[in-house]
Amino acid sequence: MKLLFVCTGNTCRSPLAEAIARKMSIERGLTDLEFASAGTSAWENAPASDGALLVGMEHGLDLSQHRAQLLSRELVAENDVILAMGPHHLERVEALGGTGKAFTLTGFASHGKSDRAISDPVGAELSVYRTTFNELEREIRRVVERVTADR
Fold first, then answer.
1. Structurally, how many domains does the chain consist of?
2. Can you tell me the distance from the alpha carbon of 114 to that of 104, in angstroms, rounded to the nearest whole number?
3. Using one digit for the tens of pLDDT, what is the confidence trace for 12-51?
4. Which of 44, 58, 81, 151 yields a CA-CA distance of 20 to 30 A from 73?
5. Residue 33 — φ and ψ, nearest 5°?
């Protein structure tokens, strides 16, 4: 199963989400899950933000090789589940053909009980990145549990 995380620039939230999900799936021995990330307004090949790199390192995640990619119709088509950081990202995914397999991250994680956006730390203090990381980790744990339970 291929899961795609989507945010705006693909330098903060979605690369962190991708790295967190990959680490969780490895720890659980889930070898059939693949993860990627993209941005609705990404600058192709931009690196992860300094805040994302630092917070990732604090948690044993290496985002140094990450390069941003722009969300495309092809990426939407090749992924099974697409998890957007907020409603406006979801709208863009659906406009590119993702209707029926795209959800907000919190909506998917909560089985539709919540639909709030994940806070965007771009340009903020490191403490905001840490808060976003914790939020992502909590929601992605629920996503991994849902994906494995649904199989």
1. 1
2. 9
3. 999 999 999 999 999 999 999 999 999 999 999 999 999 9
4. 151
5. -105, 135
> What's the pLDDT at 126?
96
Single out the catalytic residue among 115, 116, 120, 146.
120
Active-site residue, 13 included: yes
Please say whether the beta carbons of 67 and 36 come within 8 A.
Answer: no
Instruction: Say what the pLDDT of residue 151 is.
Output: 67
Instruction: Tell me which residue range forms the domain holding 57.
Output: 2-149
Q: Does residue 120 carry a catalytic annotation? A: yes
Identify the active-site residue in 12, 13, 22, 92: 13
User: Annotated catalytic, 7?
Assistant: yes
CATH code: domain of residue 140: 3.40.50.2300
Is residue 105 scored above 90 in pLDDT?
A: yes
H helix or E strand, kind and range, residue 92: helix 87-93
Strands of 8-145 (E only): list them.
Answer: 34-39, 81-84, 102-104
